[in-house]
Amino acid sequence: MERQEKKADAKRGGAQPKDEAKASAKVVDAGKKLKEDMDKVMDEIDDVLEENAEEFIKNYVQKGGE
Q1: What is the per-residue pLDDT for 9?
Q2: Global pTM value
Q3: Angle at the Cα of 24 (from 22 to 40), degrees rounded to 5?
Q4: SS3 for 13?
Q5: Residue 50 DSSP label
Q6: Higher pLDDT, 38 or 57
Q7: pLDDT at position 63, please?
Q8: For the chain, first and last CA: distance in Å?
Q9: CA distances in angstroms from 14 to 8, 9, 17, listed in the order given
């Protein structure tokens, strides 16, 4: 019977130990940092496309047989 209760608690999520809560905070911080970095890269791409979108499209379009 005790095993069933432990399994049920595990399925429900139960309480997180403090170490896991700290790890979760680290993961959240790392995720925020990655999001900021990706936003910077997207802004850079946007700036490049604003400056020379026509040249970019000409180089991107496939030529026969490519």
Answers
A1: 58
A2: 0.49
A3: 120
A4: coil
A5: H
A6: 38
A7: 72
A8: 66
A9: 9, 5, 9
